[in-house]
Structure formats: C-alpha cells, structure tokens
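The records we work with from here on pair a chain with its fold. These numbers are not coordinates but entries in a learned vocabulary of local backbone shapes. To see the layout at work, look at the sequence and tokens printed below:
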Amino acid sequence: MKYAQSIVLIIFTLLFSQCNTLSNISSTKSHNQDSTSVKPNVVVQKPRTVEESVAQFLQSQLVKNEFSNLTSLLKPTSILVDSSSKSIQVHFNRYFSYIPFREENTSQFYKEFQSLLPDSLVNWNFSLNTMKKPLEELIPNAYRSIVQKDLSRKPTVENSLKPLVRQADNPFDISNGLSGRHIAM
C-alpha cells in the first residue's frame, strides 16, 4: 500500500511541476500580448486523473481570488484514492488553512473541485483537508448555520473554590452577587 502511495505521489509531483511550468509560460505569453488583442476561445479539457484535477483546482480562479498572495505556496501533501469505498481525500499543506473559512467559500471549494474531477469520479465521496482536518472543521462556530456547531469549542465555566480576597471578620457568608467572583480593575 505504501509503495502504491509513493508511486502516486511521485507521478503527481511530476505532473504538478509540469503544470506550473506550463502556467508560467502561458502567463509570460499573456503579458507580452497587446491589451487590445482578443484572446481566442480556449477549450479546457477535463482532467483524466485526480492529480490533474488537484493541479487545476489550485490554478482555478476561485483559489487565486481567495489566496491572492499565497497561491505559489499552496501544495497538496497527499492524495488518497480508495476505490473500494469510492472516496478521495486530498490533503493540502498548512498554507491552505490561512484564509478565514466560512460555509459559503467552503462549499464553493467543494463545488469547484467536483467540477474538475474526471467524469468517472464525479459521484465519489471526497474531502479537502488541511492540517489533518476537513475544511468544514475550520469554520468558526459563530459562522456556522448549516454545519453542525462543535460543542467542544465552547468555553467551560470553572467555579473557583476559594475567592482570592475575602473579609476575615465578616460574621455572615454572602452567596449571591459578586461575592466569590474575581474582578480585575
């Protein structure tokens, strides 16, 4: 299994480096053209492999808009394709977690990636991950309405046993109000 994963990773690295080279060549050509010239209609072919899909996803306009200055740093760390369970897991490096994730842009990422998958894999389950977590888990609770809120993120209120300061000669114990609560001034 590890041998197959390493072969897939090597093939992906080779394909991705070629895609970067091609995009650099095409960007220099577009800079050399007149601004008044009309670009011919270019038919973009759907990728034939998951690795090509990931490479096109990282070059897509959506990713470029969201990660404006970080696009050159975004790299996939691993791509796991499980044909028995028909699932794909794409893991990106930590730079993919540097933008504020919300439900809207997370669903846009998933739709964009699904549109770039080969036709034979469109109905497969897939997840986009960064820092060993799916993108949905990076959405803060305050911005979740569709995605279920993560209750483990809520702060817990701990009751302190003894107050920091108390009046030693007080004949009665105050149980309500600000008694026993610490207030910094």
